[in-house]
Amino acid sequence: MNLDILNKFTTHLKNAIARAAAFALELNSPRINPEHLLYGLILQKGSIGAEILSKAGLKAENLRTSLVGERIMKIATKKGSLKFSKNAKRSLEKAALIASEYK
Q1: How far is CA 38 from CA 41, 75, 103, in A?
Q2: Continuous H helices in 27-77
């Protein structure tokens, strides 16, 4: 993914992506997946995304518990450079397109 696309995002989204990356690393995941992005977004208080997820009933603690539990059940992966999964890349690219429509 072209990292220049990140410059088009709001500070809230950049912070959410940073949290997603940290969480993916914490789980020893080789990639940032959509579920990591979702977790990073729900932690970003004050963002529209976090408000929408909260109103939909999603709680950060429940998501974290679910993702950590899922990770424990998987085989440990090698540590290395962290990459975005294809689905996470698509999610961010779509977000950039939608965001550009509102500028």
Answers
A1: 5, 22, 23
A2: 34-43, 48-55, 60-73
pLDDT in tens, 29-66: 888 999 999 999 999 999 988 999 999 998 998 888 88
Distance between CA atoms of residues 73 and 52, nearest Å: 30
Helix (H) or strand (E) holding 32: strand 31-32
Rounded Cα–Cα distance for residues 79 and 31 (Å): 10
Q: In the chain, what percentage of residues exceed pLDDT 90?
A: 33
> Cβ distance 3 to 24 under 8 Å?
no
> What is the distance, to the nearest Å, from the Cα of residue 18 to the centroid of all Cα atoms in its chain?
8
Domains of the chain: 3-101 (1.10.1780.10)
